[in-house]
Design a protein that fits this description.
globular, alpha+beta, 6 helices, 221 residues
């Protein structure tokens, strides 16, 4: 529609034309991301997606993901805390896919934390034979009756401070598939000081790569 307006109105002022063009570009970007997410999710659900495993220090991986979103956190004046022990464990994961999970959860926390005095906390701990990660905010939260549905594709949490949902509704569905492929679990809890939302997930600690590959084969069997 906006492209048609630009095409049909040759006398449109330059400032208005640039605004409409920027909107068209943004819409195209959103559509491209949506198509990519849909295709990715189809691969996960069909079992055709595979993990590219390598051993990684999980603390360094978390720090790298946090560093990537810090400019946005600073711009929005969000109080960000990273609570990760100096020595966390290493394990075999698909680095790009686990980065996708962490970045998606941090992005959601940025979108939905308190718009005036936002707080986000990233916590990681070794618990038994797994790494536990929690990314929590102080926003409006997710009602208990909705928590079992937030990982469904296209589901949008209704009880938010925004006028309309943002995003494709596929980020958490993809994140769940990635975590499950690693034989981990993902779930929702209350956020900071009983407010907001916390998305928690675990990644089993694998000392030998073939252990996870074998787990994949069992899962697909």
């Amino acid at each position: 529609m906006q492209a048609e307006i630009i095409h049909d109105d040759e006398a449109m002022p330059t400032e208005d034309r640039e605004m409409f063009l920027q909107n068209v570009i943004s819409d195209c970007d959103r559509l491209t991301r949506l198509i990519g997410n849909v295709l990715d999710l189809e691969k996960y659900e069909s079992g055709s997606q595979r993990l590219q495993l390598r051993k990684v220090d999980l603390k360094l991986l978390l720090e790298e993901c946090s560093l990537g979103i810090k400019p946005l956190i600073h711009r929005r004046k969000i109080d960000f805390e990273m609570d990760v022990p100096e020595r966390l464990s290493s394990t075999y994961v698909d680095v790009d896919k686990v980065k996708q999970v962490i970045t998606n959860l941090l992005g959601n926390a940025i979108k939905f934390c308190d718009p005036v005095a936002g707080k986000i906390r990233l916590v990681a701990r070794k618990k038994g034979d797994a790494i536990f990660v929690k990314i929590e905010d102080n926003g409006h939260g997710i009602a208990k009756e909705e928590r079992e549905f937030v990982f469904d594709k296209f589901y949008q949490v209704k009880n938010q401070t925004r006028k309309k949902p943002t995003g494709s509704g596929l980020g958490l569905a993809i994140s769940q598939n990635i975590v499950k492929m690693h034989r981990g679990e993902i779930w929702v809890e209350e956020g900071i000081d009983g407010k907001g939302a916390a998305i928690c997930f675990t990644l089993p600690l694998y000392t030998v790569k073939k252990n996870l590959l074998h787990a994949q084969d069992i899962d697909r069997g």
